[in-house]
TrEMBL record:
This is SDR family NAD(P)-dependent oxidoreductase. Pfam families: adh_short. InterPro entries: NAD(P)-bd_dom_sf, SDR_fam. It comes from Streptomyces olivaceus.
Length: 241
């Protein structure tokens, strides 16, 4: 039985990715901060017939993240697929607000580096040695498409961090050639669950499965933004009513 660990698992994309891999026989480890949210996702996947376990951890707390991944390996076996897609909560955005390009400061970037780049490095480096030793494994790292394929100046401090993460994963993809381990970046230009067919979690999860099985592309760009995306701002899930 294979295992996927979804870091940053939420009720939309994380749940859809979990279900897509579960129907292929993967056990599922769900990792994120909120135990209640994780358990709701796990309960939703309970009809898949695989083991689904929750491991609460904050990706900015590196020892906690390491402990969660270790516990997942102990409970479910070696992690064959790592999917990393953390997202800020409204509380995160109050504490570390988004900053447009002309107003970026060192302080405005540090929190974003912690969430996206450093958390991603920690998660990937936890599973990568085992994957290399086994000669097989998949690393899929996700971010908004402002990480490189498109321009999003209204969230420039985030893009400093996600751009660094994207660059690293593209280089990792090249470095892993011939090892049996595959890494790819997914750049999501969509309001997940709010737009057309291409924005729906199930559609995006199918694309992740194709990446895992195809094992060729260094990057997948999912483009389904409306023309007024710059004026529209954040997806609804990040905006408190």
């Amino acid at each position: 039985m294979s295992t996927i660990a979804i870091v940053g698992a939420g009720p939309q994309l994380g749940r859809a990715i979990g279900r897509r891999f579960a129907v292929e026989g993967f056990d599922v480890a769900l990792i994120a901060r909120n135990r209640t949210t994780l358990q709701a996702v796990a309960d939703d996947l309970s009809d898949t017939g695989v083991r689904v376990e929750v491991f609460p951890a904050d990706v900015t707390d590196r020892p906690a993240l390491h402990a969660a991944l270790t516990a997942a390996e102990e409970r479910l076996g070696p992690i064959d697929v790592l999917e990393y897609s953390p997202a800020p909560s409204p509380a995160d955005l109050r504490r570390a607000p988004l900053v447009e390009a002309t107003k970026v400061t060192v302080d405005s970037v540090l929190a974003q580096l912690d969430l996206y780049l450093l958390g991603g490095v920690a998660a990937v480096q936890h599973v990568l040695p085992g994957m290399l030793a086994r000669g097989t494994g998949t690393v899929l790292v996700s971010s908004g498409a402002g990480s490189g394929p498109m321009i999003a100046p209204h969230v420039a401090n985030v893009q400093v961090a996600t751009g660094g993460m994207r660059n690293w994963i593209l280089n990792l993809h090249a470095a892993l050639s011939g090892t049996g381990v595959y890494a790819a970046h997914v750049a999501i230009a969509a309001f997940i669950g709010q737009g057309g067919h291409a924005s729906q979690p199930r559609t995006i999860a199918d694309a992740y499965w194709r990446l895992h099985t195809g094992r060729t592309e260094a990057e997948l760009v999912i483009q389904d933004l409306p023309d007024d995306y710059l004026e529209r701002g954040l997806a609804d899930k990040f905006v408190e009513s």
